[in-house]
Amino acid sequence: MRLSRYYLPVLRETPADAQIASHRMMLRAGMIRQEGAGIYAWLPLGFRVLKKIEQIVREEQDRAGAVEMLMPTIQQAELWRESGRYDAYGKEMLRIVDRHDREMLFGPTNEEMITEIFRAGVRSYKDLPKLLYHIQWKFRDEVRPRFGVMRGREFLMKDTYSFDIDEESARANYNRMFVAYLRTFARMGLKAIPMRADTGPIGGDLSHEFIILADTGESAVFCDKRLVEMPTPKKDIDFDGDLQPVVDQFTSHYAATDEMHDDTAFAKDVAEENRIAARGIEVGHIFFFGTKYSEPMKAYVAGPDGKDIPVQMGSYGVGVSRLAGGIIEAFHDDDGCKWPMAVAPYHVGLVNLKAGDEKTDKLCEELYRSLTAAGVEVLYDDTASRPGEKFARMDLIGLPYQVVIGPRGLENGAAEVKRRSDGAREEIALDKVADHIAAAVKDALRYD
Ligand code: 5CA
Questions:
Q1: Which residue in 110, 294, 336, 437 is a FRET match for 368, CA 20 to 30 A apart?
Q2: Is the CA virtual torsion 202, 203, 206, 209 positive or negative?
């Protein structure tokens, strides 16, 4: 992509009301624009990050055996009356009346709708288990939307729903999501720690929040350091096999959010040098709630003895749009973002320091073409901005590599390659740059 054709409205000033780094940087780097309290437009650069996060979430859901679908954002109040949540949900629900005076709402979550869809199509225990998900915008009229996309009112969530004949099989689906989440966040460069959590308005008695540690996180969290060091399950793990040992391993050490925290147990169970008391960002939340919705909404299936029984259900959420902010919280410095390759809006920024000069233009064009042909995603700064402005902008948007072509390099037959994560710089011969970068990108995108 040529920057001259792109839409990248970089802000010079730090927005006054943005309190945390990710919010400031997303606004300044032209990733998002606020359109209302807690409501954001995703500008081209931010949109690419969002799509990449979404795609990793999707791939790991598919790997775990979940099946993708898409439910609408607008729901009928009637459905929520069946479960009893229409009144219980309170002011967080955005209620809408259509032209026929029918009560509607903008979905804050989809337990009711998926239960309605399920009961219309499944009659027998033989059709179970089922694991269905979608990635869809939600609306919650949060009292205090803040920190940009981290606590928005409109936000993108991946939500999966499981249906099982009994608790044992439900537990297997819960474990699938548990392991899929560890992998999902690890692929984004994040170490997410599962913590026992309060179930809140979703309900149920078994629930884990997946938390990444960050000073600006909204929740106080307490955990054992050994959890942070635990290796992530590999992609060849058998999702149809017994995942309980993995789940047991990740739940064998103390980890709790402040609502569930018990100081005495923390002191007793965790050696002092292993105690982490920090702040965290909740990037995912999984729940098992049994028959909380299937019972009142009559999602029954015929069991082996022919008798109808309500299905056992769980739901599993990932904050897709929140992750864009969460990843910046984890990877940035004073100059801007430092995207991990897997979610970077582009892999490389190609900087032409003397746009308009025949020689540099020609060379940049060639590099742009060969990098693109090698599968590298390039944002080519072909604008007439001053070098200082170009460097600052590249650092701010934080692409993993910068390739700088200027008159000095031309003389030496070399380009300067800068790695954004640690600032390391190398001079690389012009005829080797494309291969060098392509190999580095490929290497960084490898995962297991
Ligand atoms: N129905 C269940 C699971 S599908 C559910 O709604 N769970 S949740 O309320 O915990 O939300 C799931 C995830 O969405 C959270 O872990 C969080 O990462 C994200 N999320 C929740 N509220 C917001 C918000 N206001 N802004 C951005 N992300 C949010």
A1: 336
A2: positive
